[in-house]
Design goal:
Blueprint: H1 2-9, H2 15-24, E1 46-50, E2 53-56, H3 57-75, H4 83-106, H5 113-121, E3 127-128, E4 131-132, H6 135-145, H7 150-171, H8 178-189, E5 191-199, H9 212-222, E6 231-240, H10 241-245, H11 252-261, H12 277-307, H13 313-320, E7 326-332, H14 342-348, E8 356-361, E9 364-374, H15 381-415, H16 419-425, E10 431-432, H17 448-454, E11 468-469, E12 474-483, H18 487-520, E13 523-525, E14 536-538
Antiparallel strand pairs: 1-2, 1-13, 3-4, 5-10, 5-12, 6-7, 6-9, 8-9, 8-14, 11-12
Length: about 550
């Protein structure tokens, strides 16, 4: 069945999405937020066109709404930050289903009427006590629960079965040998523990006091590196979701009408009876206010996109009931006020003076205007002297630490003593990393190059042949101990390892297929389907 294939081949799906797929029979083959293609140019009633074939608005809304319902049932209210993500996920999954079914037909796969009939009859959604509910029950369920005609439903289900056949075919190419499994097991389970000694620049700071001439020489060679930061002054307003909700009024008649229209939303899960209006009134009020506030917000964003640099920030503030614009004194990109979000700071430093822009951030909209820009300028020697002093001192101390580490490494190799014994006798503190595998970060050190080299050390050659550095510190290291893999334990886990690796390979195969199909396809989504205000708008 479809969900079996999904679980085996696409383990990244969330539990909630899997349940939705089971309810809606829409085969979601994973999602990505990759570009769909050139927007616009689709016929009325169409969510997207894929190589000339339509995905109808009905299909999109049906699947999207199912995602919403399931997330609400599983997790409660859907955060606004998830809205565009859910929209994109729904459309993306439908596009990928269309691409797979098209490719399946091209390769000669077919779903016969008998196969379709058997798939429907054997689906638990159409069974009671393991028996098919019959043609009339099936028709009634499709029309009432799925809000589709039988012909529409079966056309969509046939596409899903086509895609399933193609997936079954391409997944058969996933193979993994016992040798490959042993290497995977070794990567996770073979571990080493290292001795190490650290040489830090801080240990050598006291040895250096640069002269005035050294400082001036360094300044002349690096003067372009000593500059004042560019600083900016901005004015801004913040419009929150509550600002829009406060503008919404809902009458008692509207609340009652909603309650009478959407009866299924207010049924008790245990008894199946509709809850009293008084019990759900506040819930309905909140729901309607949010819907209307979202509509006001969408209208505000659309207008803002058009008028961001033609309207003054005062007028924008007045229209949104956000109060007077706030003003922030001069600040740099690295020293911005704590109450200004990083994304807003980056936006401010991407604009020219007098430009305005906006961005959505969680449940608020930030609108800013850059009112003043003071460019960066080169610092004079006296202005930069303290900074130069610290930099020269650090450079000298870092070089001294490196040379000392190399000297100690040579001495250990020449004397041929045990690593810990030799370094302890020289007065150094010898530490241990603790055990780690090839897939883990080297504890206390964290240098990737060392992680690769550590597993080539052995009893005959326990001391690493080079000094390792993370820019600021230098390390001399040696093998303390190695934990080899247990072959008997590998044999016990081999079957489970094989299934996990095949699942991973199938995901890789799927992603590669979809990427290739996307490259070759003409995908045109409806530009008015949803507005992805995930970045910020600016003009001028």
């Amino acid at each position: 069945m479809i969900l079996d294939m999904l679980r085996k081949g696409h383990g990244w799906f969330t539990r909630g999405v899997l349940i939705v797929l089971a309810l809606t029979f829409v085969l979601g083959f994973g999602f990505s937020l990759s570009h769909f293609g050139v927007t616009g140019g689709v016929s009325q009633g169409t969510a997207a066109e894929v190589n000339g074939e339509k995905i109808t608005l009905g299909e999109f809304y049906r699947f999207r709404d199912s995602l919403y319902r399931q997330i609400r049932q599983e997790q409660g209210e859907v955060p606004e930050s998830m809205v565009n993500f859910i929209n994109l996920t729904a459309l993306n999954q439908l596009i990928e289903l269309k691409l797979l079914s098209q490719k399946a037909r091209e390769l000669g796969f077919r779903v016969t009427d008998d196969e379709l009939s058997e798939a429907i009859k054997s689906n638990p959604a159409f069974q009671i006590d393991g028996q098919f509910i019959g043609a009339e029950g099936y028709k009634r369920l499709v029309e009432q629960f799925f809000n589709q005609s039988v012909s529409e439903f079966e056309r969509a289900y046939r596409e899903e079965l086509l895609a399933q056949k193609l997936l079954g075919f391409i997944y058969e190419t996933a193979k993994v040998t016992d040798e490959e499994l042993l290497n995977i097991y070794r990567m996770k389970n073979e571990k080493v523990n290292l001795y190490f000694v650290t040489f830090s620049p801080e240990d050598f700071f006291a040895s250096f006091s640069p002269t005035e001439k050294e400082l001036k020489d360094y300044y002349e060679k690096h003067r372009e590196e000593f500059k004042t930061p560019e600083v900016r002054r901005i004015r801004y307003i913040v419009v929150t979701d509550k600002d829009f909700e406060d503008r919404v009024t809902v009458s008692e008649e509207e609340l009652k009408a909603y309650y009478d229209t959407y009866t299924d939303e207010f049924r008790d899960k245990d008894s199946g009876k509709q809850k009293p209006f008084s019990e759900v009134r506040d819930e309905i009020l909140e729901s309607i206010k949010k819907q209307r506030a979202n509509s006001l917000k969408s209208g505000f964003l659309s207008k803002l996109e058009e008028e961001i640099n033609s309207e003054s920030i005062e007028n924008i503030a007045k229209e949104s009931n956000a109060g007077n614009p706030n003003e922030v004194e001069l600040f740099s990109g690295k020293a911005a006020p704590q109450d200004i979000p990083e994304r807003v700071v980056k936006m401010a430093f991407s604009l020219k003076q007098s430009q305005r822009a906006f961005t959505k951030l969680n449940d608020s909209i930030w609108v800013i205007e850059v009112s003043e820009v003071i460019p960066s300028k080169e610092k004079g020697f006296n202005e930069a002297k303290d900074e130069i002093f610290e930099r020269v001192k650090l450079d000298r101390a870092r070089e001294a630490a490196r040379l000392k580490a190399e000297e100690i490494l040579r001495k250990i190799k020449e004397e041929g003593k045990g690593f810990k014994e030799a370094l302890t006798s020289l007065g150094f503190r010898v530490e241990e990393t603790g055990y780690f595998s090839r897939l883990e970060r080297v504890p206390k050190i964290g240098i990737d190059e060392l992680k690769l080299d550590a597993f080539y050390l052995d009893e005959k050659n326990p001391v690493a042949s080079k000094v390792y550095s993370d820019q600021n510190r230098f390390y001399v290291v040696a093998l303390k101990d190695k934990k080899e893999i247990d072959i008997k334990e590998f044999e016990k886990q081999k079957a489970e390892l094989r299934e996990k690796e095949l699942s991973r390979l199938r995901r890789v195969i799927y992603i590669n297929w979809i990427n290739e199909l996307r490259k070759e396809a003409k995908i045109v989504p409806n530009e008015n389907l949803f507005l992805p205000y995930s970045g910020y708008g600016q003009r001028g």
